[in-house]
Amino acid sequence: MNLSLCLISILLCPLAAGGLALIHQGLGRSRSAAHAMLASLCALAAAAIAFVLIGASWSGFPGGSAHSFTAGGAQWNWLGNEAFLVHSIPLDGSLGSLILCLQIFAVGIAAIIPLSAGTDRWRLAPICFATTIFAGLVYPVFAHWVWGGGWLSQLRTNFGIAPFQDYGGASVIQVTGGLMALSAAWILGPRRGKYSDDGIATAIPGHNIVLVLFGCILALVGWIGLESAASMLFYGIAPGLIVGVILNAVLSASAGCLAAVLTTQFRYRKPDASLSANGWIAGLVAGSAACAFVSPLAAMFTAAVAGVLTTYLVEVLELRLLVDDPGGAISVHAGAGIWGLIAAGLFMHHSMISFGTQILSQSIGIATLLGFVLPLIHGCNLLLNRFLPYRVDRDGDWQGMDIRELGAGAYPEFVIHADEFVPR
Question: Which of 96, 302, 383, 387 sits 20 to 30 Å CA-CA off 214?
Fold first, then answer.
């Protein structure tokens, strides 16, 4: 492993967080823009601290200490057993220390994802507490199973099938963050004025699509760093293969965006900028699972399907299921992420002998996300919401999060709020 290349890749990761933050605040209302950006910073901060204090000991790293038990003739490695406060990880450029540096950014990116679903109505204090629980408990458990030497990475040893594969964090970061977004949207309910009494959805356009599109460019750079670092640290790929990571990341973003552009052009007669931005990120998300281990053609196909799929998922959630997700986080991160995990099993470079078992192992990972991680996330959120209500009060819903929670707007001299679609 090239230490310098790994460190450079890790240092690019915050750009992914910055890009997502810009996308989220741009797709929300102008009167909540400052709150959205501050919430992103607070989520990064709370996630990093919670992970270092507690989460890192449970996520562990390959070859590290872990809790395990024997059942059904198999050894189940289910939780890391490192010391709290990272006392057992020497900060000397070793594998454990590099993984720790990557993980504090990875968990922060996962924690930013659900903020999009809570735009314009999720209070700052519950965001910080929910992020702390997510980064200290939920994320480390699943991260250990996939990246820390846990049971999902040991399916070959225990059951003779291919191990669950996630080279760039499609499951560990993207789907877990998307499921957190789904839970938050369920608990918060829709924004006031989003649905009429008969359930008809009202369009509430994002206030700054320029920042949204700029955030897509930043996210691409951060994604390349994230995928490169994760592939080197957790799967030991050679530095030369990073070229494939870069190529496939660019192609994935491009194919996802163009697929969304063409889909919206066909359906609405004009391209939709916000959905096209969602397609760009969806392409990156779907391509994360396999990274450099698929051909460029397979990467483009995977991303194109994700771009099309996202435009339909956004509509189904909003119009059919009445789930208000202003930034499309559920569709982009959970939906496209799950598709990317399936596509990795279909297209990753492997012998035909292991093809069927790879699909099976990817399905086991997806079932774990939906059958264990989602209930765990939602249960924690429901419990926290009983003691610290997530949603802002009625006055705050009308005033906007900036005025209600921060005491000042993001654009006091330049933006006049267009509130004709919000009943008082």
Answer: 302
Rounded to whole angstroms, the Cα distance separating 387 from 420 reads 34
388-421 burial, b at 16+ Cβ within 10 Å, e below that, comes to eebbbeeebbbbbbbbbbeeebbeeeeeeeeeee
- Which tens digit of pLDDT belongs to each residue from 271-281? 999 999 999 99
Say if residue 86's pLDDT is above 70.
yes
SS3 (DSSP) at 161: coil
Dist. CA 407–CA 401, nearest whole Å: 9
Closest CA to 51 of 108, 136, 115: 136
State the number of CA atoms in the 13 A half-sphere of 362 facing the CB.
Answer: 24
First-to-last alpha carbon distance for the chain, in angstroms, is: 59
Dihedral sign for Cα 338, 341, 343, 345, please.
Answer: negative
Q: Which of 109, 104, 134, 127 has the alpha carbon at shortest distance from 20?
A: 109
Spell out the alpha helix ranges (H) of 236-351.
Answer: 242-268, 273-288, 296-315, 329, 336-347
Q: Which two tokens stand for residue 303?
A: 């991303």
Is the model's pLDDT at 352 over the cut of 50? no
Q: At what angle do helices 273-288 and 209-235 cross, to 10 degrees?
A: 0
Residue 42 burial by CB count (10 A; 0-12/13-18/19+): exposed, middle or buried?
Answer: middle
Q: What is the pTM of this model?
A: 0.94
Among 1.10.10.10, 1.10.3430.10, 1.20.1740.10, 1.10.600.10, what is the CATH number of 3-63+86-406? Answer: 1.10.3430.10
